[in-house]
Amino acid sequence: MFTETFHEVLGKEGVVSIVTCADGEAHVVNTWNSYLVSPRDGTLLIPAWKMRETERKTQGNDAVQLTLGSKEVAGRRGPGTGFHLRGTARFLRSGPEFDLMKEKFPFTTRVLEVTVTSLQQTL
Prior knowledge:
This protein is α+β, with helices and mostly antiparallel strands. 20% of the residues lie in helices and 52% in strands. It has a single domain (4-121), classed as Pnp Oxidase, Chain A.
C-alpha cells in the first residue's frame, strides 16, 4: 500500500494535517512528517502530546483523514508531491508500539495509531 514515493515524503520535513469528525463537527490538528513512523505497511504511528480533541473525536468516530507532502520530492508534474490518506484511528497508552514511540519521542503521552485504508497521491 505505501509506495516508494510515500516513504520518500516521510523522510522529508513537511506538515501533516489530521482530520477527525464526530458530533457533526470536524477537527483538524497538525504534526510533522518526521514524527510519523510506519512499523509495517498500512500502519502509521504518530506521537501525541496534546491531541485531546482528536482523541475525543475518534472515540465517537474512528474514521480519520490525513494529508501530507513535501516540496523536496518530485511529483507527477514537477517539484513537490502530496498524499491524502483515509483510515481508522485509535490511541495507544501502552504496549510495544507505545514504548517504541516513547523512546523515539520522549514527549509522547499517547500514540495515535492509524490503519490506512486508502492512499492517494495528490500532486
